[in-house]
């Protein structure tokens, strides 16, 4: 431990914590004006049905190019936005932007679009009300929307989440459990939740062909889901080998650099499934 290794180690450790705190404070501060300063954008990543080689929809993923800090990954700023409460406004922005994009793009207007919602937001109704309003005003068609949420929401506050998911189903939206396998949800949770898709986390897909255990996990999740009447989508497929394995296991849909990276709206029309993207 640190103490046994002497005092130098302590100060090195403190320095890292300090640097990380400084960065978090900067990010948190910069987030406050990001919407007004038009620093966010959305990119869309195609989803593919491997059996039919057809596009089944797109996942909307946020991008942030901060004037002060440069480009920042959502993996870094979304957790900070959750902590500061800024996530509410960000999700509203995402919902509105998806609505506009689906109106103007003749690729998206005929497709299903997935939107990521932080597990923490399942404690409040605000964002569902935004979606409901957009739908009521014909600015978005909730039937064409898939909501992606991680297992954390199911485990953290079961009753509230169930109520929210039911409200989403009433609106006609599809529900997918994102990053499946990384959380702590059990079969009993899945059985009680009105979900249509499980999304197998990239960490399992990554080692297909490398780690037999991960292959077994992927196989088992697919068999189990299908037995429960739930479809499976795999995220992060990058190689032919992974795609072949997933297809052979009857994985319903695949997403990953093998087929396409996330891209700006204006590039969607140019994209076709014929030529796989260079990884
Ligand atoms: P996620 O929802 O699990 O999204 C998948 C992530 O994997 C995306 O990263 C995507 O760009 C990346 N990815 C897709 N295919 C591949 C592949 O073949 N190889 C590799 N290495 N990566 C691949 P991204 O866009 O950086 O987003 C990271 C996470 O940030 C997302 O994970 C999601 O949890 C969160 N996020 C992104 N956009 C939003 C948003 O609008 N709202 C919320 N609440 N969270 C978001
Ligand atoms: Mg997702
Ligand atoms: Mg995911
Ligand atoms: Mg993920």
From TrEMBL:
Cellular component terms per the entry's GO annotation: membrane
Keywords: Membrane, Transmembrane, Transmembrane helix
Single GO molecular function: catalytic activity
Domain EAL: 24-276
GO biological process, one term: signal transduction
Keyword Transmembrane helix annotated: yes
Entry keyword annotation includes Chloroplast: no
Domain of life: Bacteria
Name this protein carries in UniProt: EAL domain-containing protein
Organism: Neptunomonas marina
Whole-protein residues included: 644 to 922 of 922
């Amino acid at each position: 431990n640190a103490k046994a290794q002497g005092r130098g180690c302590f100060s090195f450790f403190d320095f890292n914590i300090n640097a990380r705190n400084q960065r978090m404070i900067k990010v948190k501060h910069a987030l406050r004006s990001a919407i007004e300063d038009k620093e966010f954008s959305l990119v869309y990543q195609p989803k593919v049905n491997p059996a039919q080689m057809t596009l089944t929809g797109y996942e909307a993923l946020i991008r942030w190019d901060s004037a002060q800090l440069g480009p920042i990954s959502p993996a870094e700023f979304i957790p900070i936005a959750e902590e500061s409460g800024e996530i509410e406004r960000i999700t509203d922005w995402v919902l509105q932007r998806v609505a506009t994009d689906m109106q103007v793009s003749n690729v998206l207007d005929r497709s299903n679009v997935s939107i990521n919602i932080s597990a923490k937001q399942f404690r409040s109704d605000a964002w569902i009300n935004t979606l409901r309003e957009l739908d009521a005003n014909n600015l978005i068609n909730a039937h064409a929307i898939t909501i992606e949420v991680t297992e954390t929401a199911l485990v953290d506050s079961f009753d509230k989440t169930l109520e929210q998911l039911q409200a989403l189903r009433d609106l006609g939206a599809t529900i997918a459990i994102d990053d499946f396998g990384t959380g702590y949800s059990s079969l009993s949770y899945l059985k009680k939740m009105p979900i249509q898709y499980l999304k197998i986390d990239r960490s399992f897909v990554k080692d297909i062909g490398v780690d037999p255990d991960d292959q077994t996990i992927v196989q088992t999740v697919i068999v189990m889901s299908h037995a429960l009447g739930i479809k499976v989508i795999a995220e992060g497929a990058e190689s032919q080998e992974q795609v072949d394995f997933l297809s052979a296991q009857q994985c319903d849909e695949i997403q990953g650099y093998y087929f396409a990276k996330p891209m700006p709206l204006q590039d969607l029309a140019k994209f076709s499934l014929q030529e796989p993207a260079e990884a």
